[in-house]
Design brief:
By secondary structure, this protein is of the alpha/beta class. The chain is about 35% helix and about 15% strand. The chain has a single domain, classed as TIM Barrel (Alpha-Beta Barrel). Strand 5, helix 5 and strand 6 form a beta-alpha-beta unit. The longest helix has 11 residues. About 25% of the residues are buried.
Length: about 140
Protein backbone atom coordinates (compact mmCIF):
# COMPACT_ATOMS: atom_id res chain seq x y z
CA UNK A 1 0.00 0.00 0.00
CA UNK A 2 2.58 2.58 1.05
CA UNK A 3 5.40 0.67 2.71
CA UNK A 4 8.03 2.59 0.77
CA UNK A 5 7.39 5.84 2.63
CA UNK A 6 5.78 4.92 5.95
CA UNK A 7 6.71 1.57 7.46
CA UNK A 8 8.24 -1.84 6.96
CA UNK A 9 5.84 -3.86 9.11
CA UNK A 10 3.06 -4.84 6.75
CA UNK A 11 1.38 -7.90 8.30
CA UNK A 12 -0.03 -8.80 11.67
CA UNK A 13 2.34 -11.79 11.77
CA UNK A 14 5.35 -9.48 11.40
CA UNK A 15 4.06 -7.26 14.22
CA UNK A 16 3.54 -10.29 16.46
CA UNK A 17 7.05 -11.55 15.67
CA UNK A 18 8.47 -8.18 16.77
CA UNK A 19 6.86 -8.36 20.23
CA UNK A 20 7.15 -12.11 20.82
CA UNK A 21 9.96 -11.80 23.41
CA UNK A 22 8.28 -8.93 25.28
CA UNK A 23 5.77 -9.11 28.12
CA UNK A 24 2.23 -9.29 26.64
CA UNK A 25 0.98 -7.17 29.54
CA UNK A 26 2.91 -4.20 28.18
CA UNK A 27 3.40 -4.95 24.45
CA UNK A 28 0.58 -5.86 22.13
CA UNK A 29 -0.73 -5.21 18.64
CA UNK A 30 -3.59 -3.29 17.12
CA UNK A 31 -5.80 -5.22 14.75
CA UNK A 32 -6.59 -2.48 12.22
CA UNK A 33 -8.96 -3.37 9.39
CA UNK A 34 -7.67 -0.64 7.07
CA UNK A 35 -4.10 -1.92 7.26
CA UNK A 36 -4.73 -5.68 7.42
CA UNK A 37 -7.85 -6.65 5.44
CA UNK A 38 -5.89 -7.96 2.44
CA UNK A 39 -3.56 -10.32 4.35
CA UNK A 40 -4.24 -13.99 3.39
CA UNK A 41 -2.84 -15.12 6.76
CA UNK A 42 -5.07 -12.78 8.75
CA UNK A 43 -7.48 -15.28 10.38
CA UNK A 44 -4.60 -17.42 11.64
CA UNK A 45 -2.65 -14.37 12.85
CA UNK A 46 -5.66 -12.93 14.69
CA UNK A 47 -6.08 -16.30 16.42
CA UNK A 48 -2.36 -16.28 17.27
CA UNK A 49 -2.61 -12.76 18.68
CA UNK A 50 -5.48 -13.92 20.88
CA UNK A 51 -3.64 -17.02 22.11
CA UNK A 52 -0.64 -14.86 23.00
CA UNK A 53 -2.80 -12.23 24.76
CA UNK A 54 -1.54 -9.53 22.40
CA UNK A 55 -4.64 -7.80 21.00
CA UNK A 56 -4.38 -4.34 22.56
CA UNK A 57 -7.06 -2.72 20.38
CA UNK A 58 -9.34 -3.26 17.40
CA UNK A 59 -9.62 -0.36 14.94
CA UNK A 60 -12.07 -0.29 12.05
CA UNK A 61 -12.75 1.67 8.90
CA UNK A 62 -13.44 0.58 5.37
CA UNK A 63 -11.24 0.58 2.26
CA UNK A 64 -12.83 1.92 -0.90
CA UNK A 65 -11.34 2.70 -4.27
CA UNK A 66 -10.36 4.82 -6.00
CA UNK A 67 -7.92 5.81 -3.28
CA UNK A 68 -7.10 9.39 -2.39
CA UNK A 69 -3.61 10.69 -3.24
CA UNK A 70 -2.85 10.30 0.48
CA UNK A 71 -4.07 6.75 1.11
CA UNK A 72 -4.63 7.44 4.81
CA UNK A 73 -7.40 9.87 3.83
CA UNK A 74 -9.31 7.07 2.05
CA UNK A 75 -11.01 5.76 5.18
CA UNK A 76 -14.75 5.11 4.82
CA UNK A 77 -17.72 3.98 6.88
CA UNK A 78 -17.92 0.24 7.47
CA UNK A 79 -19.98 -1.27 4.69
CA UNK A 80 -18.97 1.30 2.05
CA UNK A 81 -15.93 -0.59 0.80
CA UNK A 82 -14.45 -4.06 0.43
CA UNK A 83 -13.83 -5.24 4.01
CA UNK A 84 -15.95 -8.08 5.41
CA UNK A 85 -16.54 -6.68 8.91
CA UNK A 86 -18.72 -9.57 10.03
CA UNK A 87 -15.94 -12.13 9.52
CA UNK A 88 -13.24 -9.71 10.73
CA UNK A 89 -15.07 -8.89 13.96
CA UNK A 90 -15.99 -12.54 14.63
CA UNK A 91 -12.30 -13.48 14.30
CA UNK A 92 -11.24 -10.75 16.76
CA UNK A 93 -13.95 -11.64 19.29
CA UNK A 94 -13.30 -15.39 18.89
CA UNK A 95 -9.63 -14.64 19.66
CA UNK A 96 -10.74 -13.37 23.07
CA UNK A 97 -10.74 -9.61 22.54
CA UNK A 98 -13.14 -7.94 24.99
CA UNK A 99 -12.24 -4.28 24.54
CA UNK A 100 -13.98 -1.52 22.66
CA UNK A 101 -13.94 -1.07 18.90
CA UNK A 102 -12.31 2.13 17.68
CA UNK A 103 -13.62 3.73 14.48
CA UNK A 104 -11.14 5.90 12.56
CA UNK A 105 -13.40 8.16 10.52
CA UNK A 106 -15.44 11.32 10.91
CA UNK A 107 -18.91 10.77 12.27
CA UNK A 108 -22.51 11.79 11.86
CA UNK A 109 -25.78 10.58 13.33
CA UNK A 110 -26.40 8.23 10.38
CA UNK A 111 -22.78 7.04 10.53
CA UNK A 112 -23.16 6.09 14.19
CA UNK A 113 -26.29 4.05 13.36
CA UNK A 114 -24.44 2.20 10.59
CA UNK A 115 -21.43 1.46 12.81
CA UNK A 116 -23.61 0.24 15.69
CA UNK A 117 -25.27 -2.22 13.28
CA UNK A 118 -21.83 -3.74 12.59
CA UNK A 119 -20.13 -3.50 15.98
CA UNK A 120 -22.73 -2.95 18.71
CA UNK A 121 -22.02 -1.56 22.16
CA UNK A 122 -18.23 -1.96 22.06
CA UNK A 123 -17.92 0.95 19.68
CA UNK A 124 -16.03 4.14 20.48
CA UNK A 125 -14.64 6.88 18.26
CA UNK A 126 -10.94 7.63 17.90
CA UNK A 127 -9.67 10.60 19.86
CA UNK A 128 -8.81 13.31 17.36
CA UNK A 129 -5.35 13.84 18.85
CA UNK A 130 -4.39 10.21 18.08
CA UNK A 131 -4.64 10.82 14.35
CA UNK A 132 -2.98 14.15 13.51
CA UNK A 133 -2.77 13.22 9.81
CA UNK A 134 -6.58 13.17 9.74
CA UNK A 135 -7.15 16.33 11.76
CA UNK A 136 -7.97 18.67 8.89
CA UNK A 137 -9.38 16.23 6.35
CA UNK A 138 -11.63 14.02 8.47
CA UNK A 139 -13.58 16.62 10.41
CA UNK A 140 -14.81 16.17 13.98
CA UNK A 141 -14.77 12.79 15.69
CA UNK A 142 -17.53 11.51 17.96
Amino acid sequence: MYASDRCVVSTLGQALDLVTDLDPAVRGVTVDTFHLWWDPELPAQIARAGREGRIASYQVCDWRTPLEADVLLSRHYPGEGVIDFGAFTRAVLDAGYTGQIEVEISTSRSGRRRRRRWFGARLRASPRQCHPHLRDAAGPHA
